[in-house]
Amino acid sequence: MIMRMLNGLFVNSRHDVRSGWKIASVIMIYIMFSLILGVVARFLPLGKEGVATVTPYIGEISFILAVLVALKLIDDKSPHDMGFIHFRWGIRDFITGLVTGAALMTAIFAILLGFGRVELANGFSNPVWSHYLWSGLILYILVGFAEEMFFRGYCITALQQTGRTWFAVICSSLLFSFAHLGNPNASVVALANIFIVGLLFAFMYIKTGNLWMPIGFHISWNYFQGNIFGFPVSGTAPHGIYNIDSVRGALWSGGSFGPEGGLLATLLLGVGFLVVWLYPVKSEMQKRGVV
Predict the structure, then answer these.
(1) 3-state class of 247 per DSSP?
(2) Are 7 and 14 in contact (CB under 8 A)?
(3) How close are the terminal C-alpha atoms of the chain, in Å?
(4) 217: which of 65, 143, 210, 229 lies 20 to 30 Å off by Cα?
(5) What is the pLDDT at residue 284?
(6) In whole angstroms, what is the distance from residue 87 CA to residue 136 CA?
(7) What's the CA dihedral at 246, 248, 252, 255 to 10 degrees?
């Protein structure tokens, strides 16, 4: 009886590992990889500054590895099973995500600048070129892949075994928001917006049937936010081509958390939902050129 109860705690009636344990396993594997790679980095001739520089990259790489390991060892599935279709079939979705994320962040910047909510430290004719232009791109590419593979690809797929897609979407979006609780200057509006962003990414994922659109949006949204326009990205320090000198009206601009902490982003994310709703999706047969 006790063994049966313990078995039911970890495995459902279909003999699948329960989704909560699957998600917890990814987090534990992620911590393990982070510790191992962190120790390796300390033995490399990088110095303290070098280790601090590579730490964010280590975190994202660890996340990607954790998802892949859990997917194979726990689920006995391939990345394709959670929406990682071949790039040639998903390139249209990926480009749409990139363009939409960049366009919405550009619109936020233009509106805040136009209404005097932000001021630039350097004018448009005097951009600041630095290594952050490419190092930031690499980082946000890793962030886009890591977070979408886990929060959308793995979490939604795992939670869908409950038979309730809406439950999977809400839980994965809440988890995505909770993951930002420790970010500097996080606020109620910021966490609510990140939850909404999670819903938007889930909408993209479910409608297209793959991860490429949310990955593309995630990359360009973060990159344009921090490395082009110089906003803080979820509270982290920016290094942009343009740099924000002052921010006023934090309720709308997001203040020191960045645009994701403001109500303007809330409104613009609504446009994102509209874009995805109107987006024409190709069938698998059309993607492969069969019809």
Answers:
(1) strand
(2) no
(3) 55
(4) 65
(5) 54
(6) 23
(7) 50
Q: Are 259 and 234 in contact (CB under 8 A)?
A: no
| Token pair recorded at residue 200 | 């938007």
CA distance 70 to 188: 32
CA 264 to mean position of chain CA atoms:
20
- Over residues 212-260, the pLDDT tens digits come to 999 999 999 999 999 999 999 998 888 889 888 767 788 999 988 999 9
Radius of gyration of the chain (CA): 20
Q: Length of the chain, please?
A: 291
- CB distance 252 to 116 below 8 Å: no
**Which residue blocks in the chain are alpha helix, DSSP H?**
2-10, 19-43, 47-73, 87-114, 132-147, 155-159, 165-178, 188-208, 212-223, 250-253, 263-278, 284-287
Taking each helix axis as running N to C, give the angle between helix 87-114 and helix 212-223, from 0 to 180 degrees, rounded to the nearest 10. Answer: 30
- Sequence-separated (6 or more) residues with CB below 8 Å from residue 276: 200, 203, 204, 207, 213
The secondary structure of 124-191 as a DSSP string is: TTS----THHHHHHHHHHHHHHHHIIIIIIIHHHHHGGGS-HHHHHHHHHHHHHHTTTTSTT--HHHH
Report how far residue 182's alpha carbon sits from residue 250's, in angstroms, rounded to the nearest whole number.
19
pTM metric for this prediction = 0.92
Of 212, 195, 194, 192, residue with least CA distance to 204: 212
